[in-house]
Amino acid sequence: MTGRDGQLAEASPAGAAAVAAPAVEAALRSLKLTGMADMLGERLAQARTGSLGHAELLGLLIGDEQTRRDTAGLARRLAAAHFEQVCAIEDYDFGYNPQIPAGTIRDLAGLGFLTAGQSVILHGPVGVGKTMIAQALGQLACRRGHTAVFTKTSRLLADLSGGHADRTWTTRLRRWARPALLICDDFAMRDLTMAQADDLYELITERAGRSIIITSNRAPADWYPLFPNPVVAESILDRLVNTAFHVPMPGRSYRPHQRPGTGKPDPLAPDPSGQDTAGQAAP
Predict the structure, then answer these.
(1) pLDDT in tens, 78-104
(2) Residue 47: which H helix or E strand, with range?
(3) Alpha-carbon distance 169 to 161, whole Å?
(4) Which of 27, 113, 186, 232 has the fewest CB within 10 Å, making it most exposed?
């Protein structure tokens, strides 16, 4: 540029950066690097104060982009999982039913079972928090980068059954088999038909090496009579029961303690602000 004395004045680095910033931001957005674009102005301001070197500036912008992608990825995984409520192991009141093995459940929160492709069976009476613990483990898995899907077992079987009618059964089976963690709530609630037992066998076989969390009001030993064919029952349960961590959850139901008017929220109830899963489809 020209100074007041008529001679060319050298543009300052700060001024050059200010001029270039809009073009750089536009280029970042066109490359879908929105985390870097959103933070570019702030990072350049830090650089202009002399508190950041070139390498530090670039490193921070890359970190901003990584944070955005991690946050967006977590949001996608949680949405795809169809959880009924937001919860964590830390929210569970182990003191209410001290017979429940708190140490075992906290060990499971390390997710070693998921890394090893093992399964978990949570069984006990209604209202003790089996579903809450299962969802807490599932949400922890999502936060650590794994995919998960939560479903009532009856809905899973109904979805697979529908695939026989419209010839999409193979596609539906693969969708249920794909997540790193499948959570089947309210397993073994009632007798299975032959078709349901066959579908369940195919799903367990397809998911070999991938983890399943099962919640049930019945102990695994009581599942066998629910199958119409003892051979199919043995084939399914041998693969499932004998390769899973068994977590008995005896005790009183928490729900009567949280009746309306007690002044305490029910940690076992579905999140009233969450999505309605009554019509949940396959993942």
Answers:
(1) 999 999 999 999 999 999 999 999 999
(2) helix 34-48
(3) 8
(4) 27
Does an H or E element contain 141, and which? helix 130-143
Contact 132, 266 (CB under 8 A): no
What is the model's pTM? 0.77
Residues 230, 44: Cα–Cα separation, whole Å: 69
266 is written with which tokens? 């029910």
Tokens of 68: 């955005």
Token code pair at residue 17: 């950066």
Please check whether residue 240 is in contact with residue 203, taking contact to mean a CB–CB distance below 8 angstroms. no
Degrees (nearest 5) of the Cα angle 106, 108, 111?
A: 125
For the chain, domains (ranges, CATH) are: 13-79 (no CATH), 82-258 (3.40.50.300)
First vs last C-alpha separation in the chain: 60
Could you tell me the two tokens for 172? 């539906």
The lowest-confidence range among 96-105, 250-259, 265-274 is 265-274
Give the up-direction half-sphere exposure of residue 111: CA atoms within 13 A in the CB hemisphere.
19
Element (H, E) at 104: helix 102-108
Q: What angle do CA 34, 87, 130 make, to 5 degrees?
A: 140
Distance of CA 154 to CAs 131, 163, 165, 182, Å?
Answer: 15, 14, 17, 14
Q: 63: Cβ–Cβ under 8 A, 6 or more apart, which residues?
A: none
Give the model confidence (pLDDT) of 237-249 as tens digits: 999 999 899 999 9
Two tokens, residue 22? 């809009």
- Rg of the chain over Cα atoms, rounded to whole angstroms, equals 26
Model confidence at 19, in pLDDT bands (50, 70, 90)? low
